[in-house]
Structures are given as C-alpha cells and as structure tokens.
Design a protein that fits this description.
alpha/beta; single chain; globular
C-alpha cells in the first residue's frame, strides 16, 4: 500500500466484504489464525454475513499487549537468507510457540513465506506492515478490546475456538469467556503449543474437520 496506515484489521474486513460480494458468496466457513481470526470475527459479526461456521485459531477479543510487543520485535525486519534452509532455521527460532514439527512440515510452512530476491530469499510481505503494528499502545489495545468483544457478542453462527495451551496471545481466561458469551464457542486446547497452532498436526486437523463437517 502507498500508505502503510491501511494495514489494519478494519480495512482487511472491508476488503473481505468487497471480495465476498464480488464472489456472490452465500455460505462460507471461515478458519482464521491470529490476524485471520480477527478478520473472520469482524465478518461474522456483520448483519447478513455469509459466514455459517467460524474457527478462531488462538485469537479472541482480548489480546495481550506483551504478545503484540513480541511479534512487533521481529515484524518488518529487512531479513535475507541465501537458502530456504537458512530461512527455515530463523523462522523456527522465532516461532517456538508453534509447537513441535518435523523438518518436512516446517519446510512446507516456510516455503510460501518466502520470495526469491537475487541469489537469496526474503519474506513474502511488505515490511511496511510493521509501521501501524509498532505504533500500537496499551491504551489502544484496551479500547480495541471493548469494540471486539461487542463484535464477538453479535456473532450468531457456530464458533470453535482453538487455543495453544501455552499461548501468550489468547489467555485461558479470555478463551473461557468466549464459551459463555456471544455464540458460546466450543473450546479446544492443544498441549505443548503456544501461539499459534499451525493446523498441520493430526489432532488439530481432526478438530477443525469434525467441527466443520458436523
């Protein structure tokens, strides 16, 4: 974007509203991890939403400011690697919360996150996405939480909340509150995982499949 201030959730929700309208989507199952979950939450809260089932993967209306600071510490860095293996090693180092993965699984997750750059590779996103992210303050997070809870309370479709048991972004308290408010979500936690489950482990895939196909 010419103006990086546009890299924010309300704009992403508006973009998805436009896309779904162009596609004439009448029924949609939304599985969203972290930011993707917040976009889905916003969409599902709208009147006449096409979302009929919603999966929120390790994210909810209340987000810990410390987790945002942690993500902001590496977001937008001008990084470059000579090989995919080098990139995979670095990404694994900053993504310990994703839980255990085989080397094959991690490489499969890494490849789409890279783009060729000369004789090496860089991350496949605009580094300017970090500009609005790094400007987030604790009072802003608190104000956004009230609005996001209001949106969550407006959701009527069946909702599944997935949580890494060691997550620093979605607390157990918030996840439990999501089971008693709004759509009264079903909650499943995964041991040995933080932020966020990558949905490649068999038990994680099974949880999503059973919910969407039930």
């Amino acid at each position: 974007l010419a103006d990086p201030a546009g890299y924010q959730i309300p704009v992403y929700v508006a973009d998805m509203v436009t896309l779904l309208a162009r596609l004439n989507a009448t029924t949609l199952h939304w599985v969203g991890t972290s930011m993707g979950g917040l976009i889905g939450l916003g969409l599902a809260s709208l009147k006449n939403t096409p979302i009929s089932k919603l999966v929120l993967n390790d994210v909810g209306p209340a987000i810990r400011f410390e987790a945002i600071q942690r993500i902001g510490s590496y977001l937008g860095q001008p990084l470059r690697w000579k090989t995919i293996d080098e990139a995979a090693d670095y990404l694994a180092e900053i993504s310990q919360g994703f839980g255990p993965h085989s080397r094959e699984q991690w490489l499969a997750l890494t490849r789409p996150m890279l783009r060729p750059d000369g004789a090496g590779f860089t991350l496949h996103y605009d580094a300017a996405i970090a500009v609005p992210f790094k400007s987030v303050t604790e009072p802003m997070v608190a104000a956004g939480e009230a609005m996001t809870w209001a949106a969550f309370d407006a959701i009527a479709c069946p909702t599944l909340v997935l949580r890494g048991a060691d997550s620093d972004l979605l607390t157990r308290e918030t996840a439990q509150s999501m089971t008693t408010r709004g759509p009264r979500a079903r909650l499943i936690e995964f041991a040995g995982v933080g932020h966020a489950p990558t949905l490649v482990a068999d038990d994680q895939v099974r949880a999503v499949r059973e919910f969407l196909l039930s």
